[in-house]
Amino acid sequence: MACKRYDIDSSANAIWLREQRIYSVDWVYTRYVSLHYKEHLTLKILSQNAISNGDISVPIGSEYTDVVKLKGTTYNLEDDKVVTSTFNTKDLNIVTTGLMRYVKVSLPSVKVGSVIDFEMELENAASYSHIPFVFQSNYPVLFCELQIIYPKEVSLYYIATSREKFVDFAEKNPATSGLPLPESYVFQSKSLVATASKTWVRRNIPVLEEEPYVLNPVDLIEGIDFYFFLAGKLKRTWEELNTSLYEEETFYPGLAKLPSSFITNGKRLVNGSQTDEEKARRIFAFVRDSFKCNKIETIAPGTLPDTTWKIKRGSVAGVNFQLVLLLKGAGLKANPVLLSITGNKSASPNVPNLNSFNYMVCRVIVDSVAYFLDASAKENPFGFLDKRCYNGFAWVVDSTGYGLNLEPSELKERNTVVLKTDSNKTGEYTVTVRHTYGPFSASYLRSVWRRDSSSLREEVMDEVRSMSFEPSLKSFEVRNLNAPDSVLSLSYTLSWNWDKDATGLIIKPAFYKMFEKNPFSSPKRTYPIAMGVQTDHIYSMVLKLPDDFEVSELPKSSKVVLSENSYYSYFITYERESNQLILNTKLQLRDTNFDVKDYNSLRSFFDEVIQLQSQSCLVTPKSQ
User: Fold this and answer.
1) Range of lowest pLDDT (222-226, 380-384, 469-473)
2) What is the Cα–Cα distance from 126 to 128, expressed in whole angstroms?
3) Which bin fits 79, alpha (ψ -120 to 50), beta or left (φ > 0)?
4) How far apart are CA 433 and CA 431, in angstroms?
């Protein structure tokens, strides 16, 4: 009770002393299981910032779930005595939000130094047959035990993610041996004749470190994914599962046998098209622009295709399934593609389970070229998927079906900024800046600017305020904001005054910086680096100085090389005859995935990039 700091993390606001959970499976039906669930949690409060943990909210499922046991106790050390405060069950509050119910408990007398002890037991708790369990928490964990009890006619598969390999002790619990315990271990627990049981223990678990440029942080969280299957119902391969998806009318009705209405509508939409690509583009634009998406993200359409067509509204999968059927109706080869977006654990090619996926897009083949399409967002152009869709293993639903990998490092983005002088007259000095955005930047900016028009002006003003001189904004214009299949650009005109009486003006000509500061500021790195899409950031400036000014000091040109295909170049010249200051920079990143061992080199590279971007030149009035 008196301990105030723990070696595992001396700066932690709280620490889990013990987490114990038991999932006892009563029955399995297709994608669902019914559980008897127990948990016993003990938390030590070490800081004022963790006191809110005394207010507990636990999801308990539907109205059919029964709370069998609920007990909460707070322990405090006062005058060298342990004082106990118990939660009064009269204060139990069960809140319903949508289809989910939550138990809400406020434990008494919680303060710095308290130990909170909470027990709960549920019956008839429904769950998907895929149960993700997480060892790692928002606080360090000293001891975590998980037990799974299930009927022997049920098959159990699991995938564990852990820094420490689980040592299998078969039927012996190593805690009873008196020998030193490994950090991770598993053993078969004693259970009833008709059931099987396994117990996993993980000790001394640190908090997941937050680091920039991690592809999908949820994949790094220590835990175990459990999959339950009834005997004889297990789809042992993705191909077996694909047969059900393709042939059964319950999931994608009309995929195997296309309804005549979609053949009629598909052909009508492409009437007059000269090429298959034009057909695909027409149908995609029609679905994207005509259907309203409710943003529900699942792999199931949710409504029948004819209903979605009639009301012109549906989920992400519902809208994209319309796209699939219309493309097929026009005679093109199109299929649903199931994937797991970032923020959701990546799907495993080794475990065929539909619950691994939470998003559906379309894939169409035109002249042997595969295009991925998502018509659910108005800002998406043809052949574009948002970066979060590139999260590893995905599945194409076809008569045979096949898997593929969607990796962001395969994609390319090119953003350019051009600054040129319109008038170099001292009292009327103006420049024009033009941004041209690549597809990923454009998609994001369209969604932001169309949602909030004031954010567009604020974007411009943020750039203006960041410049090393003090310009004034005269006007700005955005092009193709509502035309996602065209290039998005932003142009604006600036004016500024040149002080004739100044002895010298310091100008940092790299007005537009790809990175304001080094994105890798930490001296150490734990996880591999994934910078995502291959990028080209290009900046070109032609600054014609007023006739009565000249450049007196010019920084040196330089090139910083990270690898053969990744570099930053900074080339600056001053043409005295035309009185023009010219700067061309390019940040090219073709290598976007790095091992931890390469971290120091990557960090040093960006240090040099920031230094080059910060270089100054001295501009002075011409001597008379």
Assistant:
1) 469-473
2) 7
3) left
4) 7
